[in-house]
């Protein structure tokens, strides 16, 4: 019997680079593996360079193109705007889209400042009253092992949480000739390792513990302050050769950040985010220690979650690796047989699954802009603390 045709969710996406490709893959595949209340349609993709956006549309399966995101918002055949552009454009696009009655999915971090994030959150709250919803793309929440970590903590497996240890380690800026891109330009990206990858650690730590960070003390460093402009740009960065004719430009963001933190339920935390940890490719690690047990995750081994159960019999206690590929595990049952593993792209697919399910039920998807504003406040506090010689900087999540 043919599957019943679901109403369409017509998507317009702004941006088509790394995140655009990851999101396109998710929009194309989510309804093929999960039973969704709406069927995503890849209606239009926007980018400033006409031939590049046409190429992207063809490659990634979009039905039409625009060279200005405003045109996406004006179209009445689009229900949702997906924002995959640099951070300096998020506020303007998201606010215009919500005001035009379009749902929004916005890549992280939500914005480049708390002020922008606050404005976006206020507009999103008003839109939600009219059944128009906004969500921020903290996709790592949807990695099955991290989702499992959260549900085990919620079930009390760790007892009282004492420590949160979060690292996000990459190495694509170890090469000092790697070209200057928007990710190293503060006016476009807001910050460097902090907002690009540290933001994921902050969101994941608050998500799995269900607690908020209330204060931080931070150090930030930029190891390479000048980089070649106009080099070949591959993936996140690329490699470059430099000679006397190479033009150099300033790096205006951090290469690395470390900070200590307090959470409102009592735990203390240490965080490290760097794009200069040679050999570490995408080591998004999170360890939580409680009075009854510990859990540890490393994205470089993303299909596993390590669990130490302090309640096990003395003599046989030890970390064991849970292979997160069983049908009982979050999201996994819709994919492959046990043991066959998932990849980076699945977090984005699960993000679409959860978003479309919430929209179908006319409920607020998570993380909402309010939650993402909470992360933005932590990013701002870390930046402020580092600027003030690691001065302890508090975060008031009640502020609007
Ligand atoms: C997107 O979610 C993102 O944070 C990228 O911006 C980072 O560069 C990537 O390495 C992890 O994912």
Automatic annotation (TrEMBL):
Q: Give the keywords, sorted.
A: NAD, Oxidoreductase
| Record domain Gfo/Idh/MocA-like oxidoreductase N-terminal: where | 9-128
| MF (Gene Ontology) | nucleotide binding; oxidoreductase activity
Top-level division of the source organism's lineage: Bacteria
Looking at the record, the residues that make up the GFO/IDH/MocA-like oxidoreductase domain are 148-295
A Pfam family (short name) is: GFO_IDH_MocA_C3
Extract the PANTHER family matched here.
BCDNA.GH03377 (PTHR43818)
Q: What is this protein called?
A: Dehydrogenase
**Organism per entry:** Arthrobacter glacialis
